[in-house]
Amino acid sequence: MNGLGNQILVVDMRGRDDQVLPEAAIALAADPATRFDQIMAIHDPKRDLTDAYVRILNCDGSEAQACGNGMRCVVQALAAETGKSLFTFQTIAGILTAQEHEDGLISVDMGEPIFDWQKIPLSEEFRDTRMIELQIGPIDAPVLHSPSVASMGNPHAIFWVDDDVWGYELDRFGPILEHHPLFPERANISIAQVTSRSEMTLRTWERGAGLTRACGSAACAAAVSAIRKRMTDRTVTVHVPGGPLVIEWLQNNHVVMTGPAEWEFSGALDPRTGAFTRDAEQSEAAQ
Ligand SMILES: N[C@@H](CCC[C@H](N)C(=O)O)C(=O)O
């Protein structure tokens, strides 16, 4: 599936007690036929009143605490299967609720943002008035500096720019910043330009996945950071390379993300090796 071009493999692990292995994820990501950004593995619920436990893997095999676009894909897959429209999920980071609307768009309550530096986590206290020294450009005139830092369950840094986000070499700066010592668990790195009280443009270099066409949790982290800085109102349309996501920061402190999800193909996966066989009718149609 995909969520605004964020490539997602939704893997049904219900009724099994094993897991998608990191090696399987790495093998699947290396195959052009199954290239993906994240795996959303749907497991049997571990708690009453939840529909499923969802485990999230990046294409480098690492486990993530949140994936907004992937959650919308899970909702669409389960809504098609069950006819339900309201869901409650458990992830490593906590409980999330989600809803598929009549128009097909999906809202996910991504929970409460975290700004406490120890919980993001950062290696030391950091205020966005302090520059992160970059290994590029002159030290007294860095290309990107003073990010907002926040967690949506997963760590994010958002660098604000006044001009076009496409003018920055995120593929070059992203890996340097992802591994900056300020981020002991690495971080998702975004460049954002606020264009009005209700809109911004955002590009993201994802921890464990690299450049993606959309990152839902980054859109949430960027929106709440812009709202805290009084740059926007509490509802923000975040334009990512794959299209728009609407982010609302509710008075109860929860962040709700709304956007689409799209089915692409299906097949059978060996969760130990990553061997994948596309469903027969789809293979024939592709020939
Ligand atoms: N694409 C995602 C984020 C996936 C996890 C991230 N790369 C991490 O490691 O934290 C989204 O839509 O939120």
UniProtKB/TrEMBL annotation:
Homodimer. Belongs to the diaminopimelate epimerase family. Its EC number is 5.1.1.7. Keywords: Amino-acid biosynthesis, Cytoplasm, Isomerase, Lysine biosynthesis. This is Diaminopimelate epimerase. It catalyses: (2S,6S)-2,6-diaminopimelate = meso-2,6-diaminopimelate. One of its GO terms (cellular component) is cytosol. The record marks H156, E206 as: Could be important to modulate the pK values of the two catalytic cysteine residues. The keyword Amino-acid biosynthesis applies. The lineage of its organism: Bacteria, Pseudomonadati, Pseudomonadota, Alphaproteobacteria, Hyphomicrobiales. Pfam families: DAP_epimerase (PF01678).
